[in-house]
Amino acid sequence: MGNKEAFYVKLKESLDNTTKFPTAYLYKFIVPTSGSQLEEVEELFKEKLAKISSKESKTGKYVSVSINVKLFSANEVISYYRKAEKIEGIISL
Asked: Who's near 71: CB < 8 A, 6+ residues apart?
């Protein structure tokens, strides 16, 4: 099992043990400002009516993005992480 898969298995176990769904889940990402990554992150969550806020870094090279969204299962939480990891240069916090 790769590191990513081990992470997701552990995350699912943790969410199943500590979270009562449905719940508001907070994602935090950092993306470069040089491309369309911010728009790509926003696009991921547009169907969920998520509350999205962003803040540019002091140097202007990165944007921190917080997404608060109502989700219904640990698998749904993980599915958004999997979609987000395909965005170039994204860092999940």
From this structure: 21, 22, 23, 24, 25, 48, 77, 80
Cβ-based neighbours of 56, under 8 Å, separated by 6 or more = 33, 62, 63
DSSP E strands in 1-93: the ranges are 23-32, 51-56, 62-71, 91-92
**Separation CA 13–CA 49 (nearest Å):** 26
In the chain, what are the domains?
A: 3-92 (3.30.70.260)
The pTM (predicted TM-score) of the whole model is: 0.91
Pairing, β 91-92 against β 51-56 = unpaired
Q: What one-character DSSP code corresponds to residue 88?
A: T
Is there a contact between 76 and 8 (Cβ–Cβ < 8 Å)?
no
pLDDT of residue 1: 58
